[in-house]
Design a protein that fits this description.
By secondary structure, the protein is mostly beta strands. It is 0% helix and 56% strand. Strands 2, 4, 5, 6, 9, 10 and 11 form a 7-stranded mixed sheet that branches. A 4-stranded antiparallel sheet has the order 1-3-8-7, with no helix packed on it.
Length: 116
């Protein structure tokens, strides 16, 4: 199994920045892909950004292109989401997801609130 712990959320004003972290532990060697998702109140969970564990491929949702950047530190088994130029509509709980050939794993989420 893979355990995921997100951190770095908080309250920030519009235009500000936050960096989320997702620390992975357990059978991380089997991880193929890491993704960030978010879920706002009353809305479905949506994809934000993803990265292959070997770092060779990245993807982002159109709504965050040019503002958010996903990266990973293989030595620390950690994936980051750098969020710049935050908007009130970015307010949500942000979740980390790890995909292995056998299963998917989710973290508990971290709250991001952007005030106008």
């Amino acid at each position: 199994q893979v355990q995921l712990v997100e951190s770095g959320g908080g309250l920030v004003q519009a235009g500000g920045s936050l960096r989320l972290s997702c620390a992975a532990s357990g059978r991380t060697f089997s991880t193929d892909y890491m993704r960030w998702y978010r879920q706002a109140p009353g809305k479905e969970r949506e994809f934000v950004a993803g990265i292959r564990w070997n770092g060779n491929s990245r993807s982002q949702a159109d709504s965050v292109k040019g503002r958010f950047t996903i990266s990973r530190d293989a030595a620390k088994n950690t994936v980051y989401l750098q969020m710049n130029s935050l908007k009130p509509e970015d307010t949500a709980i942000y979740y980390c997801r790890a995909t292995t050939p056998a299963s998917d794993y989710w973290g508990q989420g971290t709250q991001v609130t952007v005030s106008s």
